[in-house]
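Researcher: Re-running this chain for the archive, since the previous output was lost when a drive failed. Same request as before.
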Amino acid sequence: MFSREKLFKEYDMTFVEELRDAEFFTGLKTNYKLPSEELIKSTFELWEDSTGDLRTLLGLALHFGMRRNEIFHARKPWFQMDGDKARINITSDLSFRPKGGHEGFTLGSKTVAADILNKASDDDYLITERADSGRPLFDDALDQLRAIGWDRASPLHELRKLFGSYIASTESIYIAQKFLRHADASTTNDSYSDAIIEGDIKNLWVAA
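Model: Regenerated structure tokens:
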């Protein structure tokens, strides 16, 4: 195995030092950390106060951990409401293929699911704004999330991580992996979950 000194001698690796010294460089890998309690509560308030497609979008991300493309293609037949929790089956169709080609499911609040279905239009798709792959709607969601304090790269994806943290903290990391449809639990553990200790934060999902 090359030593650091030999590696730099044999190959031109000077760019590594320049990259390491750059202000934006924070290392090759960092574990996910929850945002502040205030921001989490503000995120739930944003969802509660929203209407229409925006409410549906935020609800599916925050309460079911769904990805952007899954949300845009979500359809009424994906929902099963006959258990203790609502089940959403992420399934392929002619215009949609789940990430990695793997179908799966997620569970969440029946109250939230019923709210989404009751407010849905007669169209099969839950998101009614279909033009330009829903870009104006998703851009609006990102703007509103940033307005309440989200400064991370992908604010909407952060809602998926909040959901993962809630499931990992109340169920297990393996259940969170299943609901987030990850290939392995290490991805869930490292990048999509943090421990939620505070009961009032956990109750944000329970009270919905």
